[in-house]
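Lab manual, section 2.4: Encoding a predicted structure.

Procedure: take the sequence of the chain (173 residues), apply the prediction step described in section 2.3, and record the output as structure tokens. A sample record is shown.
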Amino acid sequence: MCRRILATLEKKGITATLEQVECDDVMMPPVFLIRTSEATLWVIAHRLQSANLARRSTLFQSIGLTLKQLTDSGDHHLLLLSDHWFDRSKASKQLPSWWLGQMPDNIQGYLQDGIKLLPSELSLSGQLQTQFELSQGVTQLHHPLKRLHTNTTLHRYAVMTAYYPNIHAIKAG
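Recorded output:
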């Protein structure tokens, strides 16, 4: 995804650099920086192999560490990028509702793929607002895989994005 963003910027004549933020904790998701002369995009790429609370907590830890690294100057943006293969767990069935803050519109497509989605009491945006005072985010759920013979959407695999413009550093502690 970072390489696609760089290619898009290059096509528009915008010079950008890409670097990965070093982290000693192998459990933390990778964090990438895309810098232009105007702004910095922080990309957290979190694979939700499991949708359980522990894996979600790791995402929030990574966001917290990222926000502590921000400087007071400059225009900072945050892009959360995650993917997930649905399983039969309750956490997996609640993931779309949690990520979007509501049930997806195309519930029928999930049912046809054998996934009975469940509503989540919590939401990603609500938790980010409470924990980090992040607001004005745009969350989306994508299903990029298609079946070979019918070209219909495969709902068992999802890519999720959340974009937060104009983020600010949080105080250590």
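Check your result against the sample. The longest strand covers residues 75-85.
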